[in-house]
Amino acid sequence: MNILSPIKISLKYLLAAKFRSFLTILGVVIGVASVIIIMAIGQSAQALILDQITGIGSNLIGVLPGASDEKGPPATAMGISITTLKYDDLEALRNGKNVPEAEDAAGYVLGTVSAVYNGTDLNTSFEGTTASYVDVENSEIVSGRFYTKDEETNMSRVAVLGANLVEDLFSGTDPIGKVVKLKEQNFTVIGVLKKRGSTSFGLASQDDAIFVPLKTAQKLFLGIDHLAFIRLKVRDTKLISSAKENIMTTLRERHDIDDPANDDFSVRDLASAVKIITQVTDVLRYFLLAIGTISLIVGGVGIMNIMLLAVNQRVREVGLRKAVGAKNSDVWTQFLIESTFISFLGGIIGIIIGVVISGISAVIIQSLQYTWPFIISWQSIVVACLISITIGIIFGFYPAYKASKISPMEALRYE
Amino acid sequence: MSLIQVQNLCKTYENEGVKTPALCKANFFVEKGEFLAIMGPSGSGKSTLMQVLGLLDRPTEGKYFFDGRDTVEFDDDTLANFRNKKIGFVFQSFNLLPRTSVFENVELPLLYDATPDGKNKNKVLQALKSVGMEHREKYLSNQLSGGEKQRVAIARALVNDPEIIFADEPTGNLDSKSGLQVMKILQDLNNKGRTIILVTHETYTAEHAKRIIYMKDGEIVADDPVKNRRIADGESELLK
Ligand SMILES: Nc1ncnc2c1ncn2[C@@H]1O[C@H](COP(=O)(O)OP(=O)(O)OP(=O)(O)O)[C@@H](O)[C@H]1O
Ligand SMILES: [Mg+2]
Questions:
Q1: Residue B147 maps to a domain
Q2: Which is it for the CA torsion A55, A59, A62, A67, positive or negative?
Q3: Whether B100 contacts chain A with CB within 8 A
Q4: Closest by alpha carbon to B151, among B231, B70, B94?
Q5: pLDDT tens-digit profile, chain A (415 residues)
Q6: For residue B194, is it within any domain?
Q7: Least crowded by CB within 10 Å, which of A17, A39, A49, B28?
Q8: Does B92 map to a domain?
C-alpha cells in the first residue's frame, strides 16, 4: 500500500468538510505558530536585551553603595538610600595608581526634577554626572558640547539634553543657549546628546533625561553629598576581573574594611549581568515554549477526536477495504498516515502564520527604532515540523488501532 | 476437488454474553463453475453463511475447506490475502467509496495486492468492459445510477480475477430492469466458468442460478437444482 493513496483520501475528507477540517487542524496551527513565534521573539528579545547591555558597554564596571549578593538586586534598588559612596571614592578609583586597568570613571546621582521652558512644564528625570560621562558611556553629542570638568567642580548651572527633550520641552526648536528652569533655577542648555533609542535597565532612558554636573545636582537638586553609583570603563574586557580586584582593594582600604564580608559597596560588571539576563530570558523562553507545547497537545487531542469520528463514520469503508483484501496493518497504516498528514498540514500552516506574525512584529518593533533582528532559525522550523508529525502519530495511534479492529463483515451491514 | 466443502459448519454470534445461533450444521459442496443461490426468509442465516464462506467471518464450529485448504487454520493476514486474490464480493448497498472515481473504486482490491504486477490500469479497464461501464471510468461514484453502481461493484469484484464471486442481495436495491442487467452479467460470468454464490429472498432472482439452497432458522432445509432456469437476456424477459 503506497503512502499517496491515504494522503489523497484524507485530502478528500478534509476538502469535503472544509470548515470542520479547519477547526480540526486549528489546534495544531496555533500550537506550531506559537512555537515559531515564541522561538523567534524569544531569540529577538534576548538579542535586543543583550544589544542594549553591550550598547552601554560590556567593558563597564559598576560600583554600587551597600553590600549586595552578586545575583540579587542591588540594595539601592530596594529604595534604601545608602550614603557610603562618596566623590573622593570616585577620585581614588580614577587614580591610575589604584586601578591601572580603568581608562576613566564617572560618578552618578539620579532623580526627577521639574523643568520649565516657555510655559512648558515637564517633570523629567535627571542625571547628575561627572564630565567623564561621555567618555565612559560612549555617548555622542549631536549639537553643542558636554560640560567640562571645571563646570562640574564650580557648580555651573549648565544642562545637556537627552535627545527626546528637544521635542518634549523645546517643541523641536534649537535649545542651545536657551535658559531652562530646573527646580526654580535657571540653567543654560549647552548641548544635546545623540539619540540612543533604547532603555538601559533600571534607569530611565538617557534620551529622556537632563544631564547636569554632578555637584550641581547633589547640592541644588538633592542636598546630598554621596553618589548613587560609579561606572568605570576598562581598557579591555579581559582586564575586568583584575580591575574589580583593584577596585575592591582601593575601596576597602578607604573604608577601613578588613573582612570582605563587611563590604559597604558592591562591584558589578556587565559580563555577569549578561549571564544573569541570558539565564532569565532562557527561562522565559522555555516557559513560553511549554505554553506552546500545551496548545500543541490540545491540538493533538483535536486530531484524535476527528480521527475517532472518522473511524466511526467510515466503518463501512474500512469493512469494504478489508473485504477486498486490506490487512489490519494496511488499515492501521492508512489511518496513521491520515492523522499524521492532517497534523503536518496544520504544522505547515502554523509555520507560515508564525513566520508571518514574527516578521510583522519585527517590522513594527524595528519601526520604533529598536534593534530587533528578525530571526527564524531553521532549527525552529525543523522542530515545528517534527512536533506536528509526532503529534499526528501519537494522537492518531489509538484511532488507527480502533480502525484496524473493524470487522470486514461491516461491509455487508445494510442500513 | 470441490472448490468449497463444508462439514457441520456452525456460527453462533455472541454479544455481551447473549448467544444467537445463526447457522447450524451446514454440510454441502460447491464445485467450480457452479451458480448457487441461497434462499430463505429474513433472519434465516443466509448472510451469515455467505460471510463465513466468503472468509469475512470465522465459523464457531465445523470444517470449511476452500480450494482444498482448511481455512480454520488461517490467520487474519492469510484470510485477507484469500479475500483479495480468490474472492470477489457484491453487496446489496453497492459499497462504492464516496466521491471517488469509478476507476479508483474498481482499482481498490489491486491496491492491497501483495504482489503488484504494474498492470492495474489494464485490469481495471478490462473489468469495466466486462460490465459495460468503460465509458464511465472517470465518473465519481455518486454520479452514477443504482444499476450503474452495482455494475461498477461487480467490476471491482472481478478485477483480481477471483475463483468465486459472492453476491448478497445484489438486486435488492435495484429496479427490475437494472436487476436483470446485473443478473445477466452474473450469468455471463458464470458461462465463462466463474463460480457464483448468490443470496436472495426472491424466487424469481434465485431461478437465474443453477442450484438453490433453502435455509430456515439457520439450517439448510433443501438443496435442489433449478429445473426451469431463467436466462436474463435484457428487455425480452421483462416483456413476458
Ligand atoms: N453480528 C451479529 N450479532 C448477533 N446476531 C447476529 C449478527 N448478525 C446476524 N445475527 C443474527 O443471526 C441471524 C441470521 O442473520 P442473517 O443476517 O444471516 O440473516 P439473513 O438470512 O441474511 O436475513 P436477511 O434476509 O434479512 O438479510 C439473525 O437472527 C440475526 O439477528
Ligand atoms: Mg442478509
A1: yes
A2: positive
A3: yes
A4: B94
A5: 566 677 777 777 777 777 877 888 888 898 888 888 888 887 777 777 776 666 666 788 889 888 766 555 555 555 567 788 899 999 999 988 999 999 999 999 999 999 999 888 889 999 999 999 998 888 889 999 999 999 988 889 999 999 888 888 888 889 999 999 999 899 999 999 988 765 544 445 788 899 999 999 999 999 898 999 999 998 887 888 899 999 999 999 999 888 888 888 888 887 767 777 778 777 877 887 787 788 888 889 988 988 898 899 889 889 999 999 999 999 998 899 889 988 999 999 999 999 999 899 888 888 877 777 787 888 889 988 998 999 999 999 999 999 999 999 887 775 5
A6: yes
A7: A17
A8: yes
Domain ranges of chain A: 4-52+282-413, 83-263
CB contact under 8 A, A330 and B160: no
Whose CA is closest to A109, among A212, A6, A5? A212
Number of domains in chain B: 1
Answer yes or no: is B9 within a domain. no
Q: Hey, are the CB atoms on B91 and A412 less than 8 Å from each other?
A: yes
Interface confidence, given as ipTM, is: 0.92
Distance A21 CA to ligand 1 centre (A): 37
Q: Has this prediction a pTM greater than 0.80? A: no
Q: A108-125 as b/e, with b when 16 or more CB fall inside 10 Å?
A: bbbeebebebeeeeeebb
Residues 282-321 of A with CB under 8 A from B: 316-317, 320-321
CATH code for the domain of B135: 3.40.50.300
Sheet holding B35-39, edge to edge: B87-90, B164-168, B195-199, B35-39, B211-216, B219-225
